[in-house]
Amino acid sequence: MKAIIAGSTGEVGKNVLLQLLDKDLFHEVTSLTRRKSLIEHGKLNNQHIDFDAIEKLAPINADALFCCLGTTIKKAGSKEQFRKVDFKYVVDLASWAKKAGVQQFHVVSAMGANSKSGVFYNRTKGEMEEALIQFKFDSTYIYRPSLLDSDRDEKRIGERIGILVFRFLKFLFIGPLKKYASIKVGDVARGMVARSVKSEKGVFVIDSDKIPVI
Question: How many structural domains comprise the chain?
Answer without folding.
Answer: 1
